[in-house]
Design brief:
Residues 4-131 form the Saccharopine dehydrogenase NADP binding domain. It comes from Hominibacterium faecale. The chain is an alpha/beta fold. 37% of the residues lie in helices and 28% in strands. It has two domains: 2-97, NAD(P)-binding Rossmann-like Domain (Rossmann fold, 3-Layer(aba) Sandwich), CATH 3.40.50; 140-347 and 396-405, Dihydrodipicolinate Reductase, domain 2, CATH 3.30.360. It has a seven-stranded parallel sheet, sandwiched between helices. Strands 11-12-13-7-17-18-20 form a seven-stranded mixed sheet. It has a two-stranded antiparallel sheet with strand order 8-16. It is globular, with a radius of gyration of 21 Å. The mean pLDDT is 95.
């Protein structure tokens, strides 16, 4: 029986806690956050949970909450990751994170390398497993990309695309934290180009696709995401020598933020206008509605009706198979926003990210990881990928792959 600390009680952490509350191999869940209301609201709907109030800037506070746990699920902002990693090592616990931290070095790929090497060695020394990038993207996206490699002998190009086309009648550009969303819209983006990791410009290099089940063409652009860095570093060991890897994002959030980015309104630098000093990014964020989080909030938006409830989650991998050049096209299918609410009382964003994250946790509590040290979700073995996808299918989250000769 496993004891889990879920650190962070937002959309991701709360979904993991709720899913683990149903797992027979889980005996106790500690739900921890600095937000007392969020902790209390979550604990009262769970059977196996207790609450803790934690200051994530204080390692000792984390260690105190984590004493005796088998696994720490870190659902906090990525700047806290080094402290949570140190706490996990101190209490000799396994570790799960939804992304990779960017505070260890100014060059993000170097941060990930440091995590692989330093924390990988230290977790291996205590016989524990740490996995980073365990939501939907990164997470399920990495599993889908890794799975597509089974159809190739060698790989040239990998293009990962996420289109989020859920549009409310009210002004709601983001279904998750507006601060996080707009931060992602301005952060440096990375791609593997001719075998080398390089920075690309956010909102650049557009591609257009006609996705199954979606109305009309969709334009997607470069976007800051972990996958390209993980997979770029692991191109030879896990992705059959891939030379070019990109992540593209499109939908309502991009349509809203791209003009702001191009106008300089997402800048973090102080500006002065007519005698007033301000930071454009902060002004924009302060005017955005928060993402719906609670049942009644979501219900109110859905009762008003949605303009669109569509999306796409696709991997295109091009390479050689049996002497022929082929395209491996993989679609992910999952419940939309309305169906997610009917099933679980949450949004489609919360359902996919949280449920996909919870499946990585489920594999921890069922002792299904064979690797020790620190890995990212693209480094799962073929057997681990298969087990993960079996669990996902039980939640109606499935992959469909088609191989086309070029």
């Amino acid at each position: 029986m496993k004891k889990i600390l879920v650190l962070g009680t937002g959309a991701q952490g709360s979904t993991v806690a709720q899913r683990m509350d149903e797992e027979p191999n889980v005996s106790q869940i500690i739900c921890a956050d600095a937000d007392h209301k969020a902790v209390d609201e979550l604990v009262k709907i769970l059977k196996k949970a207790s609450g803790a109030y934690v200051d994530a800037d204080d390692i000792d506070s984390i260690i105190k909450a984590a004493e005796g746990v088998d696994l720490i699920v870190n659902a906090l902002p990525i700047r806290f990751a080094p402290k949570v990693l140190e706490a996990a090592i101190a209490v000799k616990a396994n570790y799960q994170d939804f992304a990779a931290t960017d505070v260890l070095d100014s060059w993000w790929p170097k941060c990930v390398e440091m995590m692989y090497e330093d924390y990988g060695r230290r977790f291996k020394e205590i016989g524990k497993t740490a996995i980073i990038g365990t939501g939907s993207a990164p997470g399920m996206m990495c599993v889908a990309a890794k799975r597509s490699m089974t159809y190739l002998d060698t790989c040239d190009d990998i293009l990962m695309m996420v289109y989020e086309g859920v549009e409310a009648k009210r002004f709601l550009p983001f279904w998750w934290s507006p601060f996080t969303a707009l931060s992602d819209m301005t952060d440096p983006t990375f791609a593997l180009k001719d075998g080398e990791l390089v920075e690309t410009e956010p909102h650049s290099l557009p591609v257009t696709r006609h996705f199954k089940g979606c109305q009309g063409p969709v334009t997607l652009v470069e976007h800051a995401h972990d996958e390209t860095v993980y997979m770029g570093l692991n191109k030879d060991t896990h992705f059959k020598g891939a030379k070019n890897i990109n992540f593209k994002y499109g939908g309502v959030g991009i349509d809203f933020s791209t003009p702001l980015y191009r106008a300089g309104l997402l800048s973090r630098e102080e500006e002065t206008y007519k005698g007033h000093t301000f930071i454009p990014f902060d002004v924009i964020v302060s005017h955005l509605p928060p993402a719906p989080k609670y049942h009644d909030e979501i219900k109110e938006i859905l009762d008003e009706g949605l303009v669109k409830d569509e999306g796409a989650f696709v991997v295109e991998a091009v390479g050689m198979k049996d002497g022929k050049r082929v395209l491996v096209e993989t679609y992910l299918y999952a419940p939309g926003c309305v169906e997610s609410f009917e099933r679980a009382g949450i949004t489609g964003e919360m359902y996919l990210t949280g449920q996909c994250g919870s499946l990585f946790t489920k594999m921890f509590v069922n002792d299904e990881y064979t690797q020790k040290g620190l890995i990212s979700s693209d480094m799962l073995t073929d057997e681990e990928c298969g087990k993960y996808l079996d669990y996902a299918a039980q939640l109606d989250i499935t992959l469909e792959t088609e191989v086309k000769t070029l």
